[in-house]
Design the sequence.
């Protein structure tokens, strides 16, 4: 896959597991957060029970806002979900999961989330493994591999990406907002900072944190890593939004996910209203293909924002390239006027 080939590192594998995994549930995000936490402490191994504590607590926090539907009966999964419901509030109050909840997490994690963390949808697994589960019964250990330590150097940035992705997926499962997101995609707030559910204008996630992982954590233009804080970076329209404000714009909406990237302050300032170079157009196509590999609303928002004139969403890489070629033609014509 192009996204991996562009930067074949453990960090890219992590991003693929977190941003592009099947995500039919959100357990993977809680496991990812728990793994980062222990890796940051420099641990080489933890007991499954230790890992289960932040895992269950993060899920209890989230379950308050977005209760999840019933699970298929995978080894202890439905019991874990029942326990999450039953003792989640008590766990939050105490600041630690109840014993029952921890036990249910320990029971369900190996067969459920731990087996699936490295998997991609239908195309096997990511190139790096971040942990191994060893031992049996109460002696089960989670060995935190060197690959996880490599990734944890960037824990602050990766945690922000993970939270944004978690919120986007979660909102998709929300009974009413989810339908809205799936049918109409997300839109950008007027200040460019938030991704919103389109009709009710509810903030779904920070735009920068939701998008930066799909460009390998780098400024879209100068390719310099934006670092662990997103405070100094901007959301930028690759085809300038100002094109739409100058008279009759015959092309598609430029304020869509397909045209939004993250840029450092310097590039954002100097780029102003110029059209993208051919190399930047290619990069935009690759970035959009990476978003298209992430299930749930971001992919759908992208495909819908690139619908053809007959209203068919751009579900293939070729269709997305054709869409951008068309925008480029219209934008170039306008530039000459
Ligand atoms: Zn830059």
Sequence:
């Amino acid at each position: 896959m192009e996204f991996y080939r562009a930067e074949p590192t453990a960090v890219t594998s992590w991003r693929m597991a977190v941003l592009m995994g099947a995500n039919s549930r959100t357990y993977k995000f809680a496991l990812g957060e728990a793994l980062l936490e222990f890796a940051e402490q420099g641990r080489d191994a933890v007991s499954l029970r230790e890992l289960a504590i932040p895992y269950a607590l993060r899920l209890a926090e989230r379950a308050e806002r977005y209760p999840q539907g019933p699970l298929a009966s995978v080894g202890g999964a439905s019991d874990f979900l029942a326990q999450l419901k039953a003792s989640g509030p008590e766990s939050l109050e105490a600041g630690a999961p109840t014993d029952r909840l921890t036990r249910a997490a320990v029971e369900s994690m190996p067969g459920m989330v731990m087996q699936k963390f490295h998997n991609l949808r239908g195309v096997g697994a990511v190139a790096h493994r971040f942990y191994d589960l060893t031992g049996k019964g109460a002696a089960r250990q989670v060995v935190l591999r060197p690959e996880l330590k490599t990734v944890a150097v960037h824990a602050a940035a990766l945690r922000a990406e993970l939270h944004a992705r978690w919120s986007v997926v979660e909102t998709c499962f929300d009974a009413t907002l989810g339908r809205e997101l799936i049918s109409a995609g997300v839109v950008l707030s007027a200040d460019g900072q938030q991704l919103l559910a389109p009709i009710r204008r509810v903030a779904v996630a920070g735009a920068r944190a939701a998008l930066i992982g799909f460009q390998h954590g780098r400024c879209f233009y100068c390719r310099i890593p934006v670092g662990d804080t997103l405070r100094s970076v901007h959301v930028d329209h690759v085809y300038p939004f100002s094109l739409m404000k100058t008279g009759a714009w015959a092309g598609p909406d430029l304020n869509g996910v397909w045209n939004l990237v993250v840029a450092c302050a310097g590039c954002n300032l100097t780029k102003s209203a110029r059209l993208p170079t051919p190399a930047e157009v290619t990069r935009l196509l690759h970035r959009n293909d990476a978003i298209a590999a992430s299930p749930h609303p971001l992919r759908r928002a992208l495909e819908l924002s690139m619908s053809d004139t007959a209203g068919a969403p751009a579900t293939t890489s070729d269709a997305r390239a054709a869409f951008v070629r068309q925008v480029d033609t219209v934008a170039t014509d306008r530039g000459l006027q």
Residues 258 and 302 are 5 Å apart (CA to CA).
